[in-house]
Amino acid sequence: MKPRDRLRVAMQKSGRLTEPALDLLARCGLTFRQSRDKLFCFGEGEPVDLLLVRDDDIPGLIAQGVCDLGIVGRNVLTEFQLTAGRDAEPLGELRPLGFGRCRLSIAVPQELDYQSPQQLQGRRIATSYPGLLGEWLQAQGVEAGVVTLAGSVEIAPKLGTADAICDLVQSGGTLVANQLREADVLLHSEAVLAGPQALPADERGDLLELLLKRLDGVIQVRE
Ligand code: PRT
Ligand code: ZN
């Protein structure tokens, strides 16, 4: 990658993390001129630009060096770290950001008397997080079939394509609406600032330090 003198931050274009992420950046004193295609936003005050993308693409964009930082759910970042392969640039969680809180949980049909993960032995579990689920099953010593679905995971038990699911839960309303209940928590998640483990060696390193300092100030005021 060529040395750059502007920092590029990837964030979700449209979704749960968009408004709180923009709000956080504004509190850090960053303002942006929105471009017409709304994919790239030029930073007006500081040399920090935004790339607006799908949340799932954020870790890959950082790993490829297209962006320097990203605001993304820990669930998406960790799944990338587990599934990207050994050659991918290792990413780190630079700061937890305190919004977008949820958990990645196993949920089972309401009538199932769930006592332990061992009851999942030989069952099929639908998820969009095969990496995180696979790691957890292995840690529990459970062998189960992992059915990877891109979305609408919660209807898999009703359709008969899975016996249980592993999905994000916030209020629990979606589970109740689908006659499921939360049985075990795999990961507590929130939005995080993700970045490479090593600071860029050009001006972006100084900018990143400045941004982290402001972020810490903003987060402290909130707490
Ligand atoms: O288009 P793009 O791919 O960018 O968006 P997306 O649809 O993949 O993501 P989005 O906006 O739904 O979520 C972005 C991030 O917000 C997630 O990766 C999580 O880190 C975080 N987050 C916080 C959540 C939730 N809460 C949440 N409740 N993401 C999803 N949900 C879904 C969940 O999948 C389930 O369908 O909401 C439902 C459960 O909510 P409750 O309140 O009924 O329990
Ligand atoms: Zn997504």
Automatic annotation (TrEMBL):
It is found in: Cytoplasm. This is ATP phosphoribosyltransferase. Residues 54-216 form the ATP phosphoribosyltransferase catalytic domain. GO terms for cellular component: cytoplasm. It catalyses: 1-(5-phospho-beta-D-ribosyl)-ATP + diphosphate = 5-phospho-alpha-D-ribose 1-diphosphate + ATP. Its EC number is 2.4.2.17. Keywords: Amino-acid biosynthesis, ATP-binding, Cytoplasm, Glycosyltransferase, Histidine biosynthesis, Magnesium, Metal-binding, Nucleotide-binding, Transferase. Feedback inhibited by histidine. The chain holds residues 1 to 223 of 297 of the full protein. Pathway: Amino-acid biosynthesis; L-histidine biosynthesis; L-histidine from 5-phospho-alpha-D-ribose 1-diphosphate: step 1/9. Catalyzes the condensation of ATP and 5-phosphoribose 1-diphosphate to form N'-(5'-phosphoribosyl)-ATP (PR-ATP). Has a crucial role in the pathway because the rate of histidine biosynthesis seems to be controlled primarily by regulation of HisG enzymatic activity.
